[in-house]
Amino acid sequence: MSEPSRTLFSEALIWAGLQNLVGEGTFVGDVLVEGDRIAAIARAPARLPRDGAAVVECSGAALIPGLVDGHAHLSFVPLANFADIGDIPPEEHAYLTMHSARTVLAAGFTSCLSAGAAKPRLDIALRNEIDAGRILGPRMLAASPELTTTGGLGDERRMHLYRESVAMIVDGVDEVRRAVRTLCREGVDTIKLNVSGNHTLSAGKAHLTLMSEPELAAAVEAAHSFDKRVAAHCRSAASVKLALRHGIEIIYHCDFADDETIDLLEAAKDDVFLAPALGMMHDTIHRSEAFGVGYDRAKARGLLEEFASVCSVFTELRKRGLRVLVGGDYGFPWSPHGANARDLEHFVRFLGYRPEEALHAATRVGAEAMLLGERLGFVREGFLADLLLVRGRPFEDVAVLQHPENILAVMKDGRFHKLPPSPNAARWPLAA
Ligand SMILES: [Zn+2]
Fold this sequence. Notes:
Elements: E1 6-15, E2 26-34, E3 37-43, E4 54-57, E5 62-65, E6 67-72, H1 82-86, H2 90-106, E7 109-114, H3 122-131, E8 139-141, E9 143-148, E10 167-169, H4 172-186, E11 190-194, H5 213-225, E12 229-234, H6 237-245, E13 250-253, H7 259-267, E14 273-275, H8 278-286, H9 294-300, H10 303-319, E15 323-324, H11 342-351, H12 355-369, E16 387-390, E17 407-412, E18 415-418
Parallel strand pairs: 1-4, 1-5, 6-7, 7-8, 9-10, 9-11, 11-12, 12-13, 13-14, 14-15
Antiparallel strand pairs: 1-2, 2-3, 5-16, 16-17, 17-18
This protein binds zinc ion.
């Protein structure tokens, strides 16, 4: 395929994503993309030469780094409960996951750190197809299914009825070790463990710690022996402490972290990434009425207290400088794939983030969690050309990112996945 290798964004309002440069991080200028990299940036009145480049006249639209979802489940398709997701045959499930990937990318999320696949090889196959350029989707780190113990999150069985869910049920260190080794062999980037309970369970509530320390230790040891990271679902304080004690790199939720646990998290702040995953919880409370859940049921499950608790924990963790990721368990009917940018507004409304800080969480911090901190997350020369052209000023009002019509263009690796309206559009490098 012959296509121009140079794209010039002309007269964009560039939010470079630079740290600690409030007011200086935003400027009007040109950005030249060559191949998959940002080759040059010029601050107005300086201009970059247009020779041989496909020119995008930005007319002051904002140019920002591509967003990173740090807690994605692209194979969680919009069904109200986990057991129904388990009913989907693998073949259909692969296609549905592919559609989720395209939707999330079009919403401006050019990278996803998966927090669990609904079947063992769904993330792996999706990541490989995206990397090969055969289907559209964000760059991905593929997760294992959620490894859970009997009675834990993802175990939908009944005594009289065997049901598959999104999880792999493992009990005892031998089963845990075998499962982790098998999944590493198959090609996951991350092993996901469900350590605490969840508000959706009748017995294993969120404040409980269901995976034993020997099981967790065996999982971490086996994953690390393959040089893979571990991510953990930890709502209870004790589960967060277990995760920290055994060197788990990515800790999700931390809803009921107490003062001691918050101190321990602070002591490990250079070693862990966290994500509160507010989206699904918020939307279960406020947007699920039409889908048969609703405010009253969410309240009865204790979600209101849990949401208040996670917000106060992360308000404190923000002050202590923890690395916190945007990403909110999207993939439920009331919080569908593509709505991922709602999480940035949650950071501002509920955790005390300034809009630019929330944008940093979704770009720079996300890039670090993707293990691409030296190449992604900034509009900077030499960095990967993951860029969004946005109508509005997302660094002042992150809510503009929630509206598809404001996402004018999405570029990943120097190729457009969503094109701005232009008579020149046919000349621009378009991904598969
Ligand atoms: Zn999750």
